[in-house]
Amino acid sequence: MLTGKQKRFLRSEAHHLKPIFQVGKTGVNENMIAQISEALEKRELIKVSILQNCLEDKDTVAEELRTGTHSEVVQIIGNNIVLYKESNENKQIKLP
């Protein structure tokens, strides 16, 4: 679990990131979870955009991504979800 201070730090780190995945009408699927897991291993911190035509609620999408990728939801802002997972091999982010 992340502390408030760590989440605040990660939010500031994620501010300049652009979403690299989009959740559309089909919602979250196994393939997407696998790709997001790989991206988290490489980058540790990513943004996922939820498109207007997504049928699922953004909180539901965030929860599915969190459990599927074993990551932490740093924040949900607008239609973007910020995910963090500490990398096993590419540690880049030093949490406070």
TrEMBL record:
<dbReference type="Pfam" id="PF01985">
    <property type="entry name" value="CRS1_YhbY"/>
</dbReference>
<keyword id="KW-0694">RNA-binding</keyword>
<dbReference type="InterPro" id="IPR035920">
    <property type="entry name" value="YhbY-like_sf"/>
</dbReference>
<dbReference type="InterPro" id="IPR017924">
    <property type="entry name" value="RNA-binding_YhbY"/>
</dbReference>
<protein>
    <submittedName>
        <fullName>Ribosome assembly RNA-binding protein YhbY</fullName>
    </submittedName>
</protein>
<feature type="domain" description="CRM">
    <location>
        <begin position="1"/>
        <end position="96"/>
    </location>
</feature>
<dbReference type="InterPro" id="IPR001890">
    <property type="entry name" value="RNA-binding_CRM"/>
</dbReference>
<dbReference type="InterPro" id="IPR051925">
    <property type="entry name" value="RNA-binding_domain"/>
</dbReference>
